[in-house]
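> tool_call: predict_assembly(chains=two)
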Amino acid sequence: MSSRSHSNDDLAASLPSPWPKSPVLQAAYRARSAAADLAPLPRSVKDDALLAIADALVVRTREIVEANAADVARAREAGTAESIVDRLTLTPERVRAIASDVRDVAGLPDPVGEVVRGSTLPNGLDLRQIRVPLGVVGIIYEARPNVTVDAASLCLKSGNAVLLRGSSSALHSNSALVTVVRDAVGGAGLPADAVQLVPGESRESVRELMRARGMVDVLIPRGGASLIKTVVEESIVPVIETGTGNCHVYVDAQADLDIAVAVLLNSKAQRPSVCNAAETLLVHRDIAADFLPRALDALAAAGVTVHADDRVRELAGACGTKATVVPATAEDWETEYLSNDIAAAVVDSLDAAVQHIRLWSSGHTEAIVTTSQPAARRFTQLVDSAAVAVNASTRFTDGGQFGFGAEIGISTQKLHARGPMGLPELTSTKYVFTGDGHVRG
Amino acid sequence: MSSRSHSNDDLAASLPSPWPKSPVLQAAYRARSAAADLAPLPRSVKDDALLAIADALVVRTREIVEANAADVARAREAGTAESIVDRLTLTPERVRAIASDVRDVAGLPDPVGEVVRGSTLPNGLDLRQIRVPLGVVGIIYEARPNVTVDAASLCLKSGNAVLLRGSSSALHSNSALVTVVRDAVGGAGLPADAVQLVPGESRESVRELMRARGMVDVLIPRGGASLIKTVVEESIVPVIETGTGNCHVYVDAQADLDIAVAVLLNSKAQRPSVCNAAETLLVHRDIAADFLPRALDALAAAGVTVHADDRVRELAGACGTKATVVPATAEDWETEYLSNDIAAAVVDSLDAAVQHIRLWSSGHTEAIVTTSQPAARRFTQLVDSAAVAVNASTRFTDGGQFGFGAEIGISTQKLHARGPMGLPELTSTKYVFTGDGHVRG
């Protein structure tokens, strides 16, 4: 600390000297400086920059798609799975869709400046709690180039600078996208360093980000469980844990069977690879004999394999379903399949379902299907997850579906943000109190 | 994880097997179980328990004061500074005051159940974002027995279980207080394990708390800078950083000199040992020759030593003040004195003051004294601290002063909570969405 010199000449004075040697920390310091410039900007200036980004993405589609083709070719050479290659691929249509998302963000209200609380204190002081940007947001993510632009637009709109640490397998795509975004940001008169790709493809660059407390205000890891675990365990920068979704559908003793089948099928099979898809079915014993034959046939028709406890297997055998039913082990209860698989168990009561969920859930989304108001009330009270669905599919836990516009991730931790994170979740607050010479007695 | 057995019999089923050997983790598991019981409790039940605690503290004052006397005697034997012995000491009056604080917490609104956001989505789903308890709150603190009861009452009121890791030098006091609190909590029909002293006096017990991710939802370190640094750097449980206050008073070019002197003196000298006391004075060059002679005399009268830059020292020499003025080094700009000392510098502009603050402040509270509306606006916009005071003492940044009732600490980080933390800051939220068979298309 004492290596910092004291000078008040200009903004550079609020950066430490000597200038750090690490390119990652240099990027963080430039982001910090850009964040100071962004914080007081009014909405119209930020929206103009966002619209300039959207225009530039469309105008420069060709260079983006060409850069992306290099990543795609390299991924294919490396024998990458087609589903991952598909997520990596940018077409002109997809670039237009990304640009359209940026325009949507421009249309969202600006969270910065919102007065969250305000009052006049008994002594006459005016107290206001006001939303302010977090400052510098670091995002660590995998090979999805659309995240690059989504994160940049959400951070800009909320007055934050962003450090983007994408996957090396999307490096050409991300470089092209960030070049286009930075040119547009600079052209709109804002600091281009508000959006930066973190230099270096090695794990070391992630490690440096995780140590940059005081320079980076929050790290949001998006991606696989091992990446998230590493960041949560090693970062001294505050982290928001995202994403793992071991979601449950519980069918209560009293339930509309049509709704139960529809909610189960949509939760599991509408898009199995995403975090808000269901991974476990729990059925109350009183309705199991009525519900399971229909449910198993519906799952069979959707190509879903059922990893079942003894009671589900017994009923499956008795009803002669065509479903593929295999024995469940303890591991099935905690697995996020992200595939056409579901674990299934019969439970003795609603409370037993809640206990199962408390024990095994990742805290993302749990659904109850019931016609009983007391059961719905008890389930929503006792389940301790980011979202609880009543007679609705788990698939609705999503920033877009919730009406937040875009989302920067889905928090499965309790601090700061829980569930889908939109623009307000990218802010902090500041108290301002105003008097006329007030002192404490 | 796979060592956990699958069973739905009772609440114990939601705890891992085998039962942990570590007493700290056992306490955490018991807290988790208690937290599940507390979460759905209505306000009246929690308030009854709080009032029972307050009554018990008064009734059992004698055993509390006797236990405290043992700690005080040991502290005196160890040659502990009288100011610390004073903070450790409990008298019957102080116990009554602590009980009165508990009654105040009972009178505060219950944050749990508050609907933070609510809407009906375009597809007809009813979406509600509802405040819920965090779960298990861990507090690590120094030898202030009043914190034991404050933390317990705030956590109970907000539906959280609390793990109290106090200082070994207050062990007898904390044990007596927690015994009284637990007896009252149990007597009111709530789980006594909602309030537990963390077993073990060694650093190892702190280390175990910091590793208990998934069992402890947040750790709040209160105390010295080194304790806070250790917890921030080593914990994988989410942390809220509290407390360090390198607060600034900036006297602008246009300022009412009477107000400037009053705010400076109150900010610095009304209670120098606390985090919201001012540690640095910045004076605009245009008002320095008028303001500093009066300010230095006032500081001299209050017994404050001034650590001054060259320009302040020059003016001090010219005006012949009786103040003790010593040369400032770079270290003075970053020091939280917590004593009758203040650093002082002349700055060339409001922006230069902001740069100084951005460089050296701990992000707690900064005050501007000005009669210029544009200056007040620019200062409050550009200063990036938890609180900004306009023509008011820095000493007002306090949960009690802000009308939050008690406070569990003052956050100097940006995530989750910033500034004084009251009951809402001890909560998370949960989304509940209700449909009638809604599925995603």
